[in-house]
Each structure stands twice: as C-alpha cells, then as structure tokens.
Amino acid sequence: MEQLDRPRVVVSVTMSVDGRITLSRSRLLMDADASKVWQSLAPASAQVLDKARSVQLDSLYQPEAILEGSGSLVADSAGPLTGLPTEFDYPADLLYSDFLPEEVVERPGHAKWFTVVDSRGRVTWEDEDHGEWDVLVLVARATPAAYLAHLRTRRICYLVAGDERVELAAALGRMRDLLGVGCVLSTAGGGLNGALLRAGLVDEIQLLVLPAVIGGLGTPTVFDGPELGDHELPTRLELLSSHTEADGMLWLRYKVVR
C-alpha cells in the first residue's frame, strides 16, 4: 500500500448517472422533501450495496474519520453563527491554537471523528449522545474568535490549518500526526470534494450510481469547484472493481493514478 504523509482519502458518495448528488442547488438533501424524492430514486439493491461498500471500506482501511463540508449541514446562504458571546476569557493566541481536550480524545468508547470543514464558523452543534463518534472542526486563522471560544466552551475539538480558509493538506497532515488518523472518508458535497481533487488529495473514489438522470445547470455534482487551468490535466483513474445489479444500481471503485 502506498505510503503517504497524510491520511488516505477515499471519496464515497451516491450519485445519479449524470453525476448529480442532489436535486438542485436550492434543493439539498438536508431538506426533508428533497431527501424523500432522492430516496425514491434508489431501487431495492441500493441499501444492500451501501452496506457492502461500508463493510469493504472498514475491511480495507478502517477509516477513523468522516469528512464533510459545512455546506452539507447548513444552507449556502448561511453566514457565521450570530448571538455568540463577544466577551470571553480565552486569549487570541490560545483560541487560534489546536483544541484537543484529553477528556474527548481519550474518551472511553471514542473510535471515530465526524470532521467538518467550517472556516466561517457556520455550524450549530447540538448536544447529543456521541457513541463512538466525536466532532472535529477544521478551522482557519480567519475563523471568528467568538466561534472558536464557543467550540472551546462546548468542549468540541478543532484544528487550525490555513489563513483565510482551511488548508486541506495541512489539516489532513495534522489529523494524522496529532490524532493518528490513517484514512478519511469524504462523504462531502462537490465543493469540498472538488477542492480535495484539485489539491491532489484524493486516493480512491467509491461511487454508487442511481438509475436516474437529474440534469440542470449548476446542480451540485460529485466534484465541483474551479475549472481546470490551461496547463492542468484531468485526473486519471484506474478501475479497481465494478458491480451491476439487475435493478440498475452500479457500484464503481476507482484508484487515482498518480
């Protein structure tokens, strides 16, 4: 297996035949009605294949972290959280250093990280029973100080990587070095997946393909983000396996060719 200076990154998503991962830019799957329509596109074998994919990934890589962008949890139009206290006891140099409290990192039962890229400080975290999961937020030095103080008060872990926005390669490296994360599973939207792709950080792609076409200019796809530059080349893939179901579902597994 290839030796990396960061965790292995596997993009694992479900898409339509034309690569769409939701119904439209304004109908994201966090919306109950949109989610219901999306689920209606999945034939009987979809749930079976999704389970098989998870079992295979656990067997191959034992991923310790799921990666999502803040756009998977809040609307695109959402800005930084408001109503947070503007006065707090944390000095700036402390706020903009990594926050990994031992009682979370070493918590009995902790096994995996639900990791969210949120440099703007947009996601509200609710109290819940974590089970084997704990939240890890990836932030930048431009993230509002009030949000970082809020995370510290809530005892939510975060890593600081980048200035204006999260520098993904650096964040992944810190996840490996500080938390021992060897594999990250990106179930994110096209914006974050596209950023990972352009940065050369994707190692494998696992796709479940629904027998449906959605279309629509601007509808989010598996990989969005900047277009190829004049001297940039498409990312070449090697097919590792394919599986076809009689009801039209496909399961495709690709390795990124370096």
UniProtKB/TrEMBL annotation:
Q: What is this protein called?
A: Bacterial bifunctional deaminase-reductase C-terminal domain-containing protein
Q: Which organism is it from?
A: Kribbella ginsengisoli
- InterPro entries, per database record: DHFR-like_dom_sf, RibDG_C, Riboflavin_Biosynth_HTPR
Give start and end of each Bacterial bifunctional deaminase-reductase C-terminal domain.
7-249
Keywords assigned by UniProt, alphabetized: NADP, Oxidoreductase
Pathway annotation: Cofactor biosynthesis; riboflavin biosynthesis
Q: Which Gene3D superfamilies match?
A: Dihydrofolate Reductase, subunit A
Per UniProt, what is one Pfam family of this protein?
RibD_C
